Amino acid sequence: MKSCRRIPVRALLAVAVLFGAPARAPANDLTLRVVADSAERSALLHLPAKFDPRRYYPVVFGFHGGLGNAEGYIANSRLFDKAEAAGFVAVCPEGTPVIGNHRVWNSGSEYVRSSRGADDVGFTRALLNAVMTRVGIDRKRVYATGFSNGGQMDYRLALEASDIIAAIAPMSGATLSEGAEPPRPVPVMHFHGTTDTVYPFDGGLGPHSIGRTPHVPVAAVISQWVRFNHASEAPEILSHEGWQEQMHAGTTPVVLVLVEGLGHQIAGGTDDRLPGQALRDTPDSVELALRFFLDHPMP
Asked: What would the 3-class secondary structure string for 131-188 be?
């Protein structure tokens, strides 16, 4: 396995690592600050409790949903805990603020105005460089997951940053390529609920959708990535109680995890209506995503 070497801070990249998240050991949770696109941006970084400076770690980026923030996403997804259990370093960036600490990602044309045209692909690259000044990472194992608008950001990274992102696992958010094609196939594991009223599985606008732009059908996005990845058009269906995996097999697979009765939520995460309690009768989407990632390093 080839691993990266640590690199110096670039001339145009200012990095400050500060202690944060007082509920955790300060040595494990840090705030990264970088200058990207002439603006200071930040992300929360989690290192394993038994961090080994001699080891090269896989990295997972977790992107919060639209009008959310990194802290809320970490609480709902429990990404930091699950990433640590799986041996990952986790990075949760902060999007562009819209109102207070409610933030968005420039995941495509729909969000250019609300994100003020932020270069969030460049921001992700800058963050990866910042992480590499602090941690030894395995450059063949850098991944992206995210919820809703954050899931849409995953798809944009797969299109525009496939040189650094090995695979993606979007949750409850999708977007078409808008005419672009990825330079290489990128493994995809997409999670969606059948009763999502914010981003309906069949597309369009649901009763709780934000904004007036109809969403594209998830099936259309899956079909597009099946074509990009030269995967099997006919999926193999793996049924579980309350959910199923639709596996489009191939060297670079595309997997749709469809959860019966799940709304606009992170499957296996906590329920906003019942703070701190995990959703029942759903797969743990973050754990499944991390397993998928470990099976799909960069070629």
From this structure: HHHHCCEEEEEEEEEEECHHHHHHHHHHHHCCCCCCEEEEECCCCCCCCCCCCCCCCE
Arithmetic mean of pLDDT, 91-113: 96
Two tokens, residue 268? 């296996």
289 C-beta neighbours (distance < 10 Å), count: 29
Model pLDDT for residues 247-257, shown as the tens digit of each residue: 999 999 999 99
Lowest mean pLDDT segment, chosen from 23-32, 92-101, 112-121, 246-255 = 23-32
Report the distance separating Cα 41 and Cα 92, nearest Å. 12
Q: How confident is the model at residue 281 (pLDDT cuts 50, 70, 90)?
A: low
Residues 6+ apart with CB under 8 A from 14: 33, 34, 35, 40
Predicted TM-score (pTM) of this structure: 0.89
Query: What angle do the packed helices 285-294 and 79-86 form, to 10 degrees?
Result: 40
Which structural domains are found in the chain, ordered by start? Answer: 16-294 (3.40.50.1820)
Tokens 């963050």, residue located: 127
